[in-house]
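sry for the spam today, last one i promise. struct tokens for design, 161 residues
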């Protein structure tokens, strides 16, 4: 799917439905993860971040193979201003991805129920949105996506932090 195809459909969080949708326009949640063995994006060498992008892309492609999703690779060509504006409006990215100097990418589920940013402020950042008040449903979706990816990648973890 291309951006112009995404633009032809309403964003998932703008579709009617969801609890208290007359009061709450949409709910959003995000979860950030870093991969063990790699420095933080703002401190790692560009070569390492390129390797990390290849590793995380392969792992997520395998883990999320059952989802219809499109991968946008920004490792060599940055998104245009129009693409950035569109993705911001659709709540598919946050400013960390667009301001990153590292090789980056974006995975967007075709119905826009979730997106996954690579090498923004963190190695991986999951974003989920839904119409109305949907905090519990979004957490369940985030947890399921995270568990799938974690089964293929080792996340960095420290009991002290």
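last one done:
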């Amino acid at each position: 799917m291309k951006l112009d195809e995404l633009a032809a459909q309403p964003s998932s969080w703008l579709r009617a439905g969801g609890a208290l949708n007359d009061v709450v326009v949409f709910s959003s949640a995000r979860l950030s993860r870093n991969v063990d063995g790699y420095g933080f994006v703002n401190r790692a060498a560009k070569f390492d971040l390129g390797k990390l992008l290849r590793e995380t892309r392969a792992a997520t492609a395998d883990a999320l193979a059952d989802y219809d999703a499109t991968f946008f690779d920004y490792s060599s060509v940055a998104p245009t201003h129009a693409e950035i504006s569109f993705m911001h409006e659709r709540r598919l990215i946050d400013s960390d991805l667009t301001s990153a100097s590292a090789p980056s990418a974006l995975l967007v589920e075709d119905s826009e129920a979730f997106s996954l940013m690579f090498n923004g402020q963190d190695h991986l950042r999951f974003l989920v949105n839904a119409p109305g008040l949907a905090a519990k449903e979004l957490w369940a979706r985030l947890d399921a996506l995270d568990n799938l990816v974690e089964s293929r990648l080792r996340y960095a973890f420290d009991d002290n932090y």
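Helices lie at 3-7, 46-63, 81-89, 95-98, 135-150. ok im logging off now
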